[in-house]
Every structure is written in C-alpha cells, then in structure tokens.
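## tool: complex_structure
## caller: assistant
## args:
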Amino acid sequence: MNTQSNIAESAAPKRKADPTKCLVGLRNIKKAFGGVHAVEDVSINLYPGEVVAVLGHNGAGKSTLMKMLAGAYPIDSGDVLINGEKVNVRTPADAQNLGIESIYQTLALADNLDSVANLFLGRELLTRWNTLDDHRMDADARKVFQRLNKNFKNYHTPVRRLSGGQRQVVAISRAIYFNAQILIMDEPTAALGPEETAMVAKLIQQLKAEGVGIFLISHDMHDVFALSDRLAVMKNGKLVGTYRTQDVTEDEVLGMIILGKQPASKLQAERHTA
Amino acid sequence: MNQALQNLKHSAVDWRMVLMAGVLLVITVVFNVMSDGIFLSAENLYNIAQQTAVVGILATVMVLIIVARHIDLSVGSVMGFVGVLIAFLMYTSNWSWPVACLAGLAASIAVAMYQGALTAFVGVPSFVVTLGGLMSFRGAAYMVADGKTQPLNDPFFLKLGGGFNGGIGTTASWVLGALICVAIIFSMASKRRAKKAYDVPTNPLWIDTVLALIPMVIVMGFVAVMNAYHIPNKEDAQGIPIPVLIWGAVALFMSFLVHRTRFGRYIFAMGGNPDAAALVGIPVRKVTMLLFLLLAVLTTIAAIVAISRLNAGTNSLGNSLELLVIAATVIGGTALAGGSGTILGSVLGALIMQCIDSGMLLLDVSIGVRYIIIGQVLIAAVVFDVAYRKWTGDVL
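## result:
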C-alpha cells in the first residue's frame, strides 16, 4: 500500500524522476479477443513529466492498450518496463502498487457509495484493529476534494446524486491521493463543462510539473493540442506513428487517425533512451 | 425550528428505517386492539420474538447476498439438510452436540464451497446454482436419515431454540440490557470524540443524545417485556429467549461487517457497480467466495436453532423457508437489483412479517387468507421501495 496521508497538502513531495529516463516502456504489446487482434505489436514510451496523447477511432485499440497497462486486461505477449525494469501487471492491484492510476471514461465509481468510500475503494485506510478508519478517510478525503474543487461538499451522499463534474473530481482524487507516478486518463473531459475542463487542464499541468507521466486518451483535438507533448496514433490495433505534438498539424493527425497515413516529411519522435 | 429540521435531515438518520419502525408499531397496535389486548401481551411478544429468530438470522446474511447481486434459493433446503444431519448424528450416532454441530458446519461449508465456486469462478448465475441446490439438498435432507424424524433430548441443546427452559432469566436479562446501554453510550461518545479529533463536523449534542436514547429505550423495553412473561407452574420468569439472543448477536456481527470492514464495503461496491469493483482492484471472486462461507456459518446456526426449537430434525425442516427469508429481506428494504440494503432493515422486515402472520393467527384468519395477505404485503413493500427511490433520486 503506497498510501500517503499528508498528500493533500497541495505541493505534495514527490520523487523527482529523471526526465531523461523512460518511465513507462510498452514493448511489442499484443492482445487478441477471440480471433480479433485488438492490439498488435505496439511499442510506446512515456517519460516523466510528459503527456502522451493516445489517439484513434473507436475500436482502434487505444483503450485496450491502456487497460492492459492498468491491469484490467491480461497481456497476451510483450513487455511492460517501469523505470527500465520489466514488471508484471496482471491485476489492477499490481498496477496500483507500481504507481499506475487510471481514470476511466466510465469513472469506475460505485454509484451507491459516497464520495469518500469511492476515493478509497479497494484501498481503504484501516485502524490498528483492521477495521475501516472512517474518520481518517473522511478527513483526508475532504482535503483532496477541496484541493480539486473548492465548492465540493457532498461527502456523504451516494455519488449517483452528484453532478458529472463532481463525479469526475472523485475519480481524479484517487490518482492524486495515492500519488500516481503514471496516470492514464481516458476521455477525462468528455462529460465536463468548460469550467471543469479548465480545472482538469490545470491539474494536468500541475502533475506534469511534479514529474508524473500521463497517457491521455481523447477525441477532443483541442485538448490534445493544448495538453499533450507527444501523440501516438493507433488504427486497427496497430501503431501508425508517434510524433511530437508541435511537429504535426491537426489535419495531419486526422489523416493518421482516419486513413492511417503517415505525414510525408515529419520525423517520428519516439525517444529511445531506455 | 427550521435549523432543527436541517439538523435532523443531515444527521444520518435513515428515514426509511424510521418509517418501517412506524409501520411495525401501527401493525402491533391495530392487532392489539382487534385481539382485545392479547397481541401485546408478554406471552405473545415472547413467542413472536423466538419464532422470528430462524428467519431473522438467515435474513441478515440474505441482505448481503442480494446486495452483491446474487440470490440464494437453496437456503431452506441446506438448512434442512444440515439440521437433519446434526440431529441424526446426535440421536442415531450418539455424538455429543458440539461435535455434531461442528460436523454440520463442515457439511454446510462443503455445500457453500461447491455453490460458491460455481458462482464465483465458473460464472454460473447464483439463481441457477441455488435453484438446483433447492432441490438437491432437500433430497439430501431426506437421505440423511432415510426420511425418519430424529428426536432430540439433550437439555442444554434444547435451550438454544427457546421454549420452556429457553430464557436466560430476569437478572441476566437486566444485566445484559444495562451492558448494551453502556455500550451504546460509549460508542456514541467515542464517535463524537473521533469526529472532533479529525475536524469533521459533528451532530449537535441533543440529536446524538436522542439517537442514543432511542435504541436504549427499545432494548430496556424489550427486556422488561421478556421478563414479564411467566410460564404458569414455573418458578421464574423467562427473560430474553436464547434464540433471540443468538439472532441479536448475529445481527450485531453482520452490522459490524457491513460498516466497519473492507469485506462489507466490497460487497456493496460489487453490488453498486461490479465493473468498477473489478477495475479498482477488489478481488471480486474471493469476496464472493467468502460471502458464501459466511452464509454457510449462519445457515448452520439457523439449523441448530431450528432443530432445537422443534426438538427434532425432520426432512421437511426449512421447507419454503427461502421464500420467507427473501420476503423478510425485501420487506426490509433490500433492493433485488443489488447495491442497497441494511441489516437493521432485515430485522424489521422479519418482525413485520411475523407480526402480521401471528396477528392474523390470533384473529383466527384462515391459512389461505394469511398467505394471500402476506404475499401482497411483500408486493406493497416493493412498490413503496420503488416510489421511495424515485423520490430520493436513487433510481437503480
């Protein structure tokens, strides 16, 4: 358990990772469902303090790839390297222990439980008698929620009664509280209004500054160009290419997503220093 | 006054429970008037309390099964099988009762492992697994003693089911009641202290005082009534019946599991959103398996109380019991869609059902009419549940 109860103090002390050292290396990852090759031979690197956008149509394999990194699906073949070391990610708990946190598009919230219970779901704080330490969880949760949204008040209503933005706050708070080193965000702004989207953008900047590496799955080109450092495009389970966001235009990205066509004159920007 | 209302609203009072307690109160008063004061006599209340225990014990665990989006239709048959087995070992094989009960527990656990593994690991819906179990274990109950009734006569064992010597006596009842009151005060005080220590807002003192006083009054009132029941030709009054004590202990333990342990929280998370439960790393299969094992333990306890109450193990023990247990659970506000339900609700649900049944019995209502009415009460409870959820916005 990598809990840290004083995390809510806003500039949480984090291990400053070496920005030149590869944080996550996905190597030749494959996954098939029955006869369908959902992910075929995909390799992507992620560096500390970097946002890599993972793009593609529905069914391109981006969510499947990310779910493998999060331990939700078993990997058929290929390696996952964390800080250069080969690791096994077989279950969500494995991923959490490696500092990988995911914010799913569905948010993965238990709608019948309150926001505090959802923040700690699967990793509840315990008293010395191994019972739930509700008071400590309550107090810690208040700090994290307040950091993300000053107006957050609904600590003890079931999350099904919360607004889309507040539900998103609960999902994001997991990554903050448990000190993610690697964050997977699947469509983090899809259900949000403009104000809340700005909050997420600000948060991403903040996490980057703390050295967190972020995979961002998004359909929103505006978000992708505003937030990502590099982008990886997938089509039909294969990687079309990885580019520095500043090197490509929106049209070129759409060309890759729709046609799988690589932009003529651009250099692929996969850094290989691992 | 407005502020007071606001306080009440935010004081974590479960209004559904309050309403159910109100319904129970109305039922008892109406039956009491109609039966010219017999319904609320100490004797009748004593009998209702001990009659409800078996269904009540099983309903506490059925709540968790249903919350986790499962169902157990085999609970009556398994209880019959385990009950006959224990009685058979004591009567025909001359085993002492503790050893026989342990053997019964082992059999119950074996059943739970089988049904649990099919549900949790193979992925067969629990409805199907336990529907098969409903028939198979009724057959097993018959086979244990070839359909013969197994009478029991161990004097200590027979106390577990209540009956003539099944009360703990007046002094012990008062002491127990007082201890429970002290525990309630202590737990309320420590809750307030912990909230203050973490800067979490606390309820105003008067609300917490009222919230602590209500269960204390109920407990002491219950003790007083049980102590007032004096079987003619018997020296002492009865006091709390042992099966009710067992039921109370089970309900307390189950509430503890629900509110204070990861296991309980995971059950609710799995019922609320199974996909999310798996994604956040809850070991869903292991928790499901543990739930079935817990069911096995409580089924054994219920079987012991049932055969002791009956003074015998018969192959028809627990016939149709699963329906009463599920009905008590549902009347107690547990949603069949999963994700919501309370232990206290199951206690109230079981009591409401038993009170209606006993009340009609007192009024000489025929068995056909009794079944019709209890069936419609079940439906009314679910109609209320649906309406209540719409009203609070908790649509499932």
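## assistant note: Chain B has a mean pLDDT of 91. The first helix of chain B runs from residue 2 to 9. Handing back to user.
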